[in-house]
Amino acid sequence: DQQVKQNSPSLSVQEGRISILNCDYTNSMFDYFLWYKKYPAEGPTFLISISSIKDKNEDGRFTVFLNKSAKHLSLHIVPSQPGDSAVYFCAASGGAWSASKIIFGSGTRLSIRP
Amino acid sequence: EAGVAQSPRYKIIEKRQSVAFWCNPISGHATLYWYQQILGQGPKLLIQFQNNGVVDDSQLPKDRFSAERLKGVDSTLKIQPAKLEDSAVYLCASSSASGYGYTFGSGTRLTVV
């Protein structure tokens, strides 16, 4: 039973354009959402998060949007750069309290082409 | 701040053998997690420690997997005996009481042949 779903295994975007990564969740108890970025042979690194009381959070080139009614969130990267090529994991938790278990999606491999 | 340290980075064993992984979390982080990431899937939580107590081990295959966190700092994860389907990257992560999200180590890639 996948509680966090990333339906696009891969995405290719031209450098300088916008990358949009999508994520759906099923558990309405989730109230904190995170995106992690993973390079090969490294552990995932935290990228950006959003609490369920917000619908948007922005950090530089990265913006996360949350649509609670649709149980959907998306990560926008603009402009996309070659260093953004990585696997992106959407994740959800039962609370901002860091001891809450985080459930991960299966990931989307983003490739930025020149 | 030093990151989460894991060793070894890679391990190849035959099925039915045993293997152990080690994790040293960020200093002062009370919560430690072990995740299993099978190729093409997202990380799946195996066990969560708060200091040296287990908070959640509902996804840990206890017939073959064991984990401990002595003195609430370092942790070891053991598999005995290993099966082919245990081939995965084993990730350790830690978090502080006030932090958001986790800090992951680089992981141990296990191949069972």
Textual characterization of the structure:
- The complex is a heterodimer of chains A (114) and B (113).
- By secondary structure, chain A is mainly β.
- Chain A has strands at 4-5, 10-14, 19-25, 32-38, 45-51, 56-59, 62-67, 72-77, 86-93, 102-104, 108-113.
- The radius of gyration of chain A is 13 Å and the shape is globular.
- Chain B has 113 residues and is mainly beta.
- Chain B has no helices and 11 strands.
- In chain B, the strands form 2 sheets. In chain B, strands 2, 4, 5, 6, 9, 10 and 11 form a 7-stranded mixed beta sheet that branches.
- The chains are: A mainly beta (114), B mainly beta (113).
Major beta sheet summary of chain A: 6 strands, mixed
**Shape label of chain A:** globular
Mean pLDDT across every amino acid position of chain B: 92
State the helix count of chain A. 0
Number of strands of chain B: 11
Give me the secondary-structure category of chain B.
mainly beta
List the defining traits of the structure above.
heterodimer; A: 114 residues; mainly beta; 6-stranded mixed β-sheet; 5-stranded antiparallel β-sheet; 11 strands; 0% helix; globular; B: 113 residues; 7-stranded mixed β-sheet; 4-stranded antiparallel β-sheet
